[in-house]
Design goal:
443 residues, alpha+beta, nine-stranded mixed beta sheet, five-stranded mixed beta sheet, 14 helices, globular, binds 5'-O-(N-(L-cysteinyl)-sulfamoyl)adenosine
Length: 443
């Protein structure tokens, strides 16, 4: 992509409304635009990152056996009356009426709709386990939307829902999602720690929040340093092996980890060796729940068991906030110059800077580098604009692409480029041929 053809509305000044780094950097890098309190448009650079985050989530959900569907944003209130949540959920629900005067709502979550789908089609335990998910916009009328897309009113959620015949099956489904989450966040360059959590309005008896560690996180977290060393399962992990899944979950839930609400300051925490205690701040990026028959009983979602009797189905739900994740990654990965994207979700692989547009050598050499890198399979943002060099460098650092290829008139004549690694700031001059090899090794 040529920068001259792109839409990248960079802000030179720090926006006053932004209280935290990720919000400030997302506004400055032209990723999002606020349209109303807690409601945002995603501009091209932001949309690209959001899509990459969603694709990683999707790949890992599919690998774990979940099936993608699409449920609507607007839901009939009657389903929520059946589950009993229409009144319980209170003012967080945005309620509307259609022209016939029917009560509708903008979904804050989808347990009711998915239970309705299930009860219409599934009759027998033979069709289980089943896990259906979608990636869809949600609306929660939060009293205090803040920190940009970190806590917004409209936000994107991946929500998966599992259905099993009994508690044991439901636990196996829970474990599969647990392991899929470990892989998902690692692929985004994040260290996520599962912590026992309160179930809130979703309900149920078992729940974990996945918290990523970031100095400016919303919640205080307390965990054992052992978490920093536990291996994350690789891509070949066998999701059909229930006991392997259970072992991974056991390993990831043994050391102490708790958010403030569940913290046991004078009990278990006090027993952990002083130098293993790790008290920091974190951001909740995922939340998984087992709630058994909470929705299936009132909504009549039952299947026939092997003994021919009917049983209400055991359910769990599994959320990740992709829009929040974009901000969370920035909180975890930035420096004084801007964002430092982990490779897996960077909007482009490489930023190419032509330092002197208008110079014949520089133009043709930069053009050649751009074309060759693109055809080698790298997604490049090519800064071909007439701008001060300082401002070009500042923009590239701000938007945080993993590698920069910098081309000046002298290098162009010698067939050389400068490669800058955004994270380490290390810069190296090399021939363009060597640069391609170098880049292939890094990205
Ligand atoms: N139905 C369940 C799981 S599918 C559910 O709604 N869970 S949740 O309430 O914990 O939300 C799931 C994830 O959505 C959270 O972990 C968080 O990453 C994201 N999320 C929740 N509220 C917001 C918000 N106001 N802004 C941005 N992301 C949010």
């Amino acid at each position: 992509m040529r920068l001259s053809n792109y839409f990248l509305p960079i802000l030179k000044e720090n926006p006053k409304e932004a209280e935290i780094t990720s919000h400030r950097l997302m506004l400055r890098a032209g990723m999002i635009r606020q349209q109303a309190a807690g409601i945002y448009s995603w501009l091209p650079l932001g949309k690209k990152v959001l899509d990459k985050v969603c694709n990683i989530i999707r790949e890992e959900q599919n690998r774990a056996g979940a099936l993608e569907i699409w449920m609507p944003t607007i839901q009939p209130a009657d389903l929520w009356r059946e589950s009993g949540r229409y009144n319980d959920y209170g003012k967080e629900i945005l309620r509307v009426q259609d022209r016939q005067g029917r009560d509708m709502l903008y979904g804050p979550t989808n347990e009711e709709i998915v239970t309705d789908i299930f009860r219409c089609y599934v009759r027998s335990y033979r069709e289980l386990p089943l896990n259906l998910y979608h990636i869809q916009w949600k609306f929660r009328d939060e009293i205090r939307p803040r920190f940009g897309v970190m806590r917004s009113r409209e936000f994107l959620m991946k929500d998966a829902y599992s259905f099993d015949l009994d508690h044991e099956g439901a636990r196996a489904s829970y474990n599969r999602m647990f392991v899929a989450y470990l892989r998902t966040f690692t692929r985004m360059g994040l260290k996520a720690i599962p912590m026992r959590a309160d179930t809130g309005p979703i309900g149920g008896d078992l729940s974990h929040e996945f918290i990523i560690l970031a100095d400016k996180g919303e919640s205080d977290v307390f965990c054992d340093r052992k978490y920093l060393e536990i291996p994350v399962p690789g891509p070949n992990v066998d999701f059909s092996d229930d006991s392997a899944m259970a072992n991974i979950v056991r390993q990831w839930t043994m050391p102490y980890a708790a958010t403030e609400e569940m913290h046991d300051e004078n009990g278990i925490w006090a027993e952990i060796r002083q130098d293993n205690r790790f008290a920091t701040r974190g951001i909740e990026v995922g939340h998984i729940f087992h709630f058994g028959t909470k929705y299936s009983v009132p909504m009549g979602a039952a299947v026939m068991g092997p003994d021919g009797k009917e049983y209400p189905v055991f359910m769990g739900s599994y959320g990740i906030g992709p829009s929040r994740l974009v901000a969370a990654v920035i909180e975890a990965s930035h420096d004084e110059y801007g964002i430092v994207w982990p490779k897996g979700i960077a909007p482009f692989d490489i930023g190419i800077i032509n330092m002197k547009p208008g110079d014949t050598h520089c133009d043709s050499f930069s053009q050649m580098c751009y074309e060759q890198l693109q055809s080698a399979g790298f997604d490049c943002l090519f800064d071909d604009c007439q701008e001060q060099v300082g401002s070009k460098f500042a923009t590239m650092d701000l938007i945080g692409l993993p590698l920069q290829v910098i081309i000046g008139p002298r290098g162009a004549t010698a067939g050389e480029v400068e490669i800058k690694d955004r994270k380490s700031s290390v810069r190296k001059m090399m021939s363009f041929k060597a640069a391609i090899n170098h880049i292939t090794g890094v990205i």
